Amino acid sequence: xxSSQNDMxxxxxxxxxxxxxxxxxxxxxFQQFYNMADAVIVGKFVGNKALAAVGSTGTxxxxxxxxxxxxxxxxxxLTAQKFGAGDMEGMRKTVVGAGVLSFVIGxxxxxxxxxxMKPLLILMNTPSDIFADSYAYIMIVSGGILxxxxxxLLSSILRALGNSKLPLYFLIISALLNIVLDLVFIIRFxxxxxxxxxxxxxxxxxxGVLCLLYIIAKVPVLHIKRDDLQVxxxxxxxQLRIGIPMALQYSITAIGTMMVQSSLNILGSTLVAAxxxxxxxxxxxxxAYGAMGTTMATYGAQNMGAGSVKRIREGxxxxxxxxxxxxxxxxxxxxxxxxxxxxxxxxxxxxxxMSSVDIYLKCIGIFFIPLAVVNIYRNGxxxxxxxxxxxxxxxxxxxxxxxxxxIAGKMRSYPGVCLAGPAxxxxxxxxLLVMYFYIMNVHxxxxxxxxxxx
Length: 454
What we know:
With 454 residues, the protein is mainly α. It has one domain (10-446). It is 82% helix and 0% strand. The protein contains 17 helices and no strands. The protein is globular.
């Protein structure tokens, strides 16, 4: 049964990492099309203020999405470890546990975000001229958290078994569906920002349902049996031990970006629109880093289950080389011609907004290598079963981003706001490298004597 999936415990690490990363990268790009389609169509057919409304909620969406992605990825680390060890019955129990925990926590998140959304927007200094649209947009997105949860959990389960291609295919379908629905709701029915949010939720739910149907039809190793329902407290506690810190790690990052957004909002809706457009451009290019991180989480978990320390080190080295090479290429692109993608999002005051977009892209481009380090080593360390240590790097990231954002806000400096992210990457990346070498030293000496727990 194991051979029908992708066993990452054998074969050339570089080849495996590249073949696994590429579909995830494409999938991440298509997932960004949800928000990008919203931004493009809203900006073109409704106007810059509506674009700013969608953009002003971007950090809240990242908070929601990041928590969901981090939590589901954390819950399935144990799935990948069981798969790597060849324990199919134990693997199915982890799937049941992840499903139960995801539903319960997803329901709680939905209620909390919908109850406290208005005070949060006020706290973030959301401009009054876009407040109503921002609130309407993000409330609909919050109501669709369980749709996000369904896709991200099932895609994480498939990736834990080494299958990174099927989640990509379903994302492509749902991204195209999102664009069509955007056009229908925004242009045909004149729903504005609310229409974009409805389209996003429907598209996300569709991708989740497609994953479920595929698993039912084509992945018998995941077919749950009666005995698999007896999950046990140990599995639940281990999943929470890894999943919650991973979710909080993403949340800490999101809180930092919310601080940046709050400082940015003070500068007015025009710069918010520019920052939004620049952020969308950045997100397309930087999805590769998230893909590398997801790959290393699965690679590390499977090889931890198989007990191969040497192979884990080889994987980290190979992925780092890939990350550095990609960073150089991506930085060259985004710092030279990236600004011209502004035309995708903006129909008014294009030249003014493009100049601000260019400032942002130049500020972040020179720091792409630290960003690669953050994603590869944070997720890779989490895949080894460590939950709390990477979260400490998240605290460093929050500190760097928060301090720069606050100073930039007080100085009303747009370039300062743009440098908040790079400050976070440098601090967190340095700390993660120290953690990695410490962990590898421990495992090389004790031969997994700590069983991968922090």
